[in-house]
Predict the 3D structure of the following.
Amino acid sequence: MPPTLAAVAALPQLGLRSLTGPLPDAPVVWVAVSELEDPTPFLEGGELVLTTGMRLTSGGAAGYVDRLVGRGVAGLGFAVGVIHPGVPPELLAAARDRGLALLEVPRPTPFIAIGKAVSRMLAAEWYEDVTRAFQAQRELTRAALTGPAALVARLARLLGGWALLLDASGAVRHAEPAAARDRAAALAPELARLRRRPASGSSPASMALAVPDDHIVLQRIGLGGRPRGFLAVGTHAPLPHVAHTIVGAAVALLTLQSETPRTGRDARAALAALLAGRPAAGPAVPDGPVRVLACAGGGTVLDALESDPAGERCLAAPLAGGTAVIVPDDLAGQVTTLLTATGPIGISGPAAVEDGRAGALAGALRQAEDALAAARRAGRPVLHHADLPGQGVLGLLEPAAARAFAAALLAPLRAEGLVGTVRAYVAANGQGEAAARALGVHRHTLRSRMRKAAELLDRDLDDPAVRAEMWIALAVTDNEDGPIGRPGDSPSGPPEIA
């Protein structure tokens, strides 16, 4: 805060004396020296105006004071012994009548001494604000290492008020103190305005509200067009400049925490952990049934998710040939509609997620990829795995018996890394050329691999009945745990033989 007029007048080296009684706590933002009859066009308000009264007349005193009061100056300093031996009575009477603080400036005190004194006080206040803001930012950073709840609690204590951290939908994530949670409902209209994306493509990052007993500042959290959440703080008095700086630091830290990487190596690692059945560090999928969407689009898929609140509950990462998106089952239809414009989409059946573990997601990913491949071949925008030919047959099988059959039949192929080769051959309906192209190998290489597979299985893979058995075993395996990688490769087996 700038120094008050009372604090400036109290400096003993200046010798200032109030002629209008006790001085108010009006802040002095600057010192302005002017001999104009009307200096107000050159003032902004809050100044201590200094004059010798060079052009002041007894008849113009009242109008002069009126103009200064109308501009909102902090006070008037009148130098005596220069032009006038004392403060003109008309000026003093007008100042008292209109509530303008009037200081007598003694002859030995130059105006520049007053300006320097106020400048030093402003610099001291500025340094104190910077120091306080720096210390507060350090405290908030340490709190952020513990988590957003600790950061919100620390912020409320630093401001001497309350703080709310809200998610993108406006639901309360953390409140300090706990009673502040009740204020969230009243903020809903303001949250809608902060979410709104105007035609210009930009939206307000914050807004200030004044309600009974509270001065509230509401800030968006997150980068880009759609907020990740909101931070609301409230105090009994309007926040000073340094407090706004502290709130800005908290928003920056919360934004860093909320901007979970959805692309690149970190997101790929998180998705890999989920598909491998391990808890993922970072992005998380809520417990419950989910589906995997295999999308042909790349960056456009991520952009579309960023543009809609439903994307907040999805986990997306680039995979070979497109993007994989894990979607809560209840949002699958909404997200599919959102992503349809990005290209063809394959959708898996439901998969279970419990306690952050998603063991069934590997099979769901394979289902989605199979559905995407079929959608591309058929020229369809969306295709569910359940709508692929033959999926109804699997529902007739007893799950435990089917898994045991598949494990026994495919075990020798897994040991030699030949599951992917047989899968491609079965998918091509025994057509060697098509299977070789799908695998990206020469037809002679495929033929060599199929001979070895036939020996291991002791079955003729050109027999349609045998291929039907293999199809069932592979389809059952698609619903089991598995790694991210080449379809059908074993996580522990050797690579495909050449």
Remarks:
- Residues 261-269, 276-283, 479-498 have pLDDT under 50 and may be disordered.
- DSSP finds 17 helices and 16 strands in the chain.
